[in-house]
Amino acid sequence: MSTHTGTATSTGTDKGADAHPAPYRRTRTHIDTDTGTVVPARAAWSSVVRAGETLTVTDLHGNQAVDCLVYDAHDTAVRYSAPDTVQAQGGIFLTAGSVLMSNEHTPLMTVVEDEVGRHDTLGGACSKESNTLRYGHHTWSQHACVDNFLAEGARHGLGKRDLVSNINWYMNVPVEPDGTLGIVDGLSAPGRRLTLRAERDVLVLVSNCPQVNNPCNGFEPTAVGMTITAAGGPDGGAR
């Protein structure tokens, strides 16, 4: 299956041709607020979300892809499965009502609110290898989502063998009639949110995508918000 990239309409500086983007900083500089955590551009994030709690992902500035993996918090061999999820819901896009299924075909999380309407299950995570193949050897030094997943996953005892096909929240990957995948401008906008409910205790890994070679981040990665709310709603508190 081939992949093509769309044309950006970003009004900012086009960083797609920049062989030396701003350096990635291994971050624990998340900004914790009363309503959650701000995850900087290009950074990784992880947390356990307890059964019944909700996780809200906020696209703070718009057009920012958020790569995501989900594991059973007590047995990480049980993890998000794209094939099981697609089969269970009969479609390749995620939206309100979609259930993230495990490789044991059991529910991990459910999308309970979605202000965008469509999220990707096919595009995968960018890596140094895929960047080089698609965009040229000069991109080899650029930080990628696989780097984020490996670094953040290591904090929880996860390694490369634990990485599977991921979800791309807010990423717009249409499928053409000939089966070609596109990576085009996102459907989101500043402040739009999606909320997931944990159906069991889960470990969520996030890479706030650093990609600058295609329109998935408008060629300029930006911060996102992550808010975990206790079962029972806002009065239960957020973290």
Q: What number of domains?
A: 1
Helix content: 10-25%
Radius of gyration, whole Å: 17 Å
Residue runs with pLDDT of under 50 for 5 or more positions: 1-30
Specify the biggest β-sheet.
Answer: 7 strands, antiparallel
Mean pLDDT: 86
Approximate shape: globular
Number-wise, the strands total 14
Secondary structure class reads: mainly beta
Order of helices and strands: EEEEEEEHEEHHEEEEE
Q: What distance separates the N and C termini?
A: 40 Å
> Taking strands numbered 1, 2, ... along the chain, how are they ordered across the largest sheet?
2-3-14-5-12-9-8
The proportion of residues in beta strands is 25-35%
Domain DUF1989: 38-203
Protein name: DUF1989 domain-containing protein
Biased composition (Low complexity): 1-14
Organism: Streptomyces fructofermentans
Can you describe this structure?
- The chain is mostly beta strands and 239 residues long.
- It has one domain (39-218).
- Helices cover 11% and strands 30% of the residues.
- It has helices at 82-89, 128-135, 145-154, and strands at 3-5, 31-33, 36-39, 44-49, 54-59, 66-72, 75-79, 99-101, 107-114, 167-169, 181-183, 192-198, 202-208, 224-229.
- The protein has a seven-stranded antiparallel beta sheet. Strands 4, 6, 7, 10 and 13 form a five-stranded antiparallel beta sheet that branches. It has a two-stranded parallel ribbon with strand order 1-11.
- A hairpin with a 2-residue loop joins strand 6 and strand 7.
- The radius of gyration is 17 Å and the shape is globular.
- Residues 1-30 have low confidence and may be disordered.
